[in-house]
Fold:
Amino acid sequence: MKSSFKKQQGIVLFFSLIVLVVMTIIGVGLAVNSSQSLRMAGAGSDSVAARLAAIGAQSLALENNKGVVMANIAEPLNIAHVNFNVNSVISPLTIQDVNCQRTSKAYAADTVSCRRSEISSTATFGRGNLGSLTVVTGVEQEVFTGS
Structure:
């Protein structure tokens, strides 16, 4: 009877080691999955932050170059926003005056026309700034015809 009891103790040790190895594999798998989920969530938040920075840089560039400067842009104007980590370019789409696409004001015939520009802001983000996001917006500046 004693010899069968000793064999059973060895079998219990063997099965407990197998259960321990299986539990360790499950734990390592869950830890890896959790770290990947955290990395993906961080990348998503970086992308959202870059988009907001690009939009903020566009607003700042338009505010700093409104009026006469915006109406008289003849060649692309590069603006580096160091605080936002964004580069913006204001490019004229047409050199001559064109009819305004949207206006709610009643003007006399051909007294007001528009000059169109495009502003594109490119933000870099992510590890080593490998991600890039560009926001492009069109701008129409009303001017007196012939000015």
